[in-house]
Amino acid sequence: MTSPRSNTVDADRWSAYEWVVWQIEVLDPEQRISEPYFEEGLPFLLAKDSREVMVDFAERWGCIYEGCRDDGTFGSDDDPCYTWWFRVPQALHAQRTPRGWPLVMEECQLHLDRTFADHYHWEVAVDVRRTRALNDGKPLPPLP
Q1: 76-91 pLDDT tens trace
Q2: How far is CA 45 from CA 33, 77, 88, in A?
Q3: What share of the chain is helix, strand, coil (3-state, %, to 5)?
Q4: pTM for this one?
């Protein structure tokens, strides 16, 4: 299940926010990410296994790693998808690539590509609910 999000983000829309929560989702219809786990008879623990690496990545960039969901699905066949969330400070949020993503999210996508040694279909977007809750001082909704 995918959370409400904004695919095309106008930098001005979020310019008053100190932090913006971005999510990066990889679609894995061929199950190439989970296959090595299953081949070795291991439980699929992508969220747990990627945590340390992604916390490190976020800290190096001045961001905050919020978490990962490794049990999402998409499409009519319920193909697997995996999502990571990052809190990005406004200064980094404003540094955009030609795709409209913050540079840090582009680097995150490249980092995840290197980690999985493959190229996947990525969706990168602002998590509107979490960003607004953070800005309004409300409890953050759970990761979808």
Answers
A1: 788 888 899 999 999 9
A2: 11, 22, 25
A3: 35, 30, 35
A4: 0.84
